[in-house]
Amino acid sequence: MATTKKAATASKSTAANTTKKTTTKAQNQSATKNAKMEDNEFHEFFVDELKDIYWAEKHLVKALPKMKKAATSPELAAAFDKHTAETQQHIETLEQVFELLDEKAAAKKCDAMAGLLEEAEGIIADTEQGTMIRDAGLILAAQKVEHYEIATYGTLRVFAQNMNRQDVADLLSQTLENEKATDVALTEIAEGAINAAAADE
Asked: Whose CA is closest to 98, among 49, 151, 56, 152?
């Protein structure tokens, strides 16, 4: 009987040690994977793209008040005002992402956003103040920006997931959902009255 008890105890001990070793091995593999990700080219590419969208957001937050000022419709002006505050939050979220990755928050010129904002300025210059045509043009410019950001944040989120960084992916998802909501809101404003009014001018 004592021998049976001893065998059972030894068996439990062996099982516990095996579980412990398996858990430790899995943790070590995860840590090794993360360490490798931080050193490889994909990680560097990911950080480089974060710097790109960081520049884009920092310049968009300066452009939106100009678009608000140029808008005719109070509803559109309010939408631009709201998104200015949201864009500031996007900047802060990106800074959190950089911190999680142990990287310095730095901006690298985003040629795509620079071109889109230049196009928005061109629309303001080429349309008459106080018209719905200008508002329709401003919505067009703003939605081009939103679609670029949706594509960028959507891809960066998937990159983060593939790097085993769900913490980063979750932050990027929050911004992605906000960008999608802004795009929908702009469509509703355009289809609600502005496009029809612009067509009649």
From this structure: 49
